[in-house]
Each structure stands twice: as structure tokens, then as C-alpha cells.
Amino acid sequence: MGANSWQEFLQGDEAAFSKLYCGYFNELFAYGLKIGFDEEVCKDAIQDVFYKIFISRKQLTYIRNIESYLLHCLKNRLFDIHNVESKINYINYNDILLEDENSVVEKIIEKESELLLKDSIKQSMSILPPKQRKIIYFHYRLNLSFDEIAALLEMKPDAVKKSAYRALQKMKESRQLKNTLFSFFLSFF
């Protein structure tokens, strides 16, 4: 639904824009509530996101995954609203720590490890069917419960749990196979 409607909208079909809005509203609304914002703020932020998309559609042709893009935009908009409302302009200079060279090197190593882990997870996720990928994303990235995911995907909670378990097993097997192949090829050197 999303990819087709998105492409149609980019080509000027305003009915497709309406489909996108209706199709993603509940998911975006649930996400906004989940990260701690009240209903009215979530609704306003969703309106803002879709308004911005509508007026700048010609610059958005590069977007391939509309769902991820919408979630990212909503999160940013909600935090922008929060920052304006809270007027966060205060910097406590006592909280700023001076870093020595060792901590900088440690941070670089930590960042590199993080990137390698993200790449590994991304590769493991790519072998999953779309529904399992979505369940894993909702549960581990958006911190939605299995009941919340079941409601969003119109599934039973037990089916969501089983699907998540199977997805994790596939990802684990994929990593084990990759590690085995890597070890096998290293034995030749």
C-alpha cells in the first residue's frame, strides 16, 4: 500500500496522499503516544508532518521507505514541539566534561563497533519476510508491546510473538552461517 501510494503521490495524485494519511495515521499516532506525548500534540505533529510532505513533495523523490521516513519525521517534529514548549536554552557548563585523548579513542572504537553491529543486524534483517521485519522493527526499535503490534497489524498477540521468535531464529541462523563461512575461508590463509 505505502510504496504504491507514495509513488502515485509523487506523480501528483492527491487521492494517493489521502490514502497515505489514512493508512499511516494510526501507526504514527500510536508511536507518538508510546514515546510519551499527549493525544493533541501527536495529532498536531502528524498534521505538520503531512503538510510539510505535501508542500515539498518534489524534493522527496529520493525516499524509498515511506514508513520509516514518516516515523522519523514525526519523532523529530514531536521533539521540536517539546523543545519550543520547554524553551530549552539552558546550558549547564558544569555538566560539560573535558575529554582526554584516551576517551576520544575509546569513543571512536565504540562508534566503529556500533556501526559493525548495525550493519550485521541490517544484513540479518534483510533475509526476513516483510511482516517479520516489521514486527522486529516495531518491538525492538519502537519498543511496542506484542499486544500493541497485534493491534496495529490486525493479528493475534500469540501470532505476533511466534513470528518474532521465528524471525530472531532466522537472524541467529544467518549470523551463525556467516560466521561458519568466514571461519572456513580463513582456514585457507
TrEMBL record:
Transcription among keywords: yes
Entry keywords, A to Z: Sigma factor, Transcription, Transcription regulation
Keyword Transcription: yes
UniProt GO BP: DNA-templated transcription initiation
Residue span, RNA polymerase sigma factor 70 region 4 type domain: 120-171
Pfam families, alphabetized: Sigma70_r4_2
GO molecular function: DNA binding; sigma factor activity
NCBIfam families the record matches: sigma70-ECF (TIGR02937)
Similarity field: Belongs to the sigma-70 factor family. ECF subfamily.
Name of the protein described by the UniProt record: RNA polymerase sigma factor 70 region 4 type 2 domain-containing protein
Record organism: bioreactor metagenome
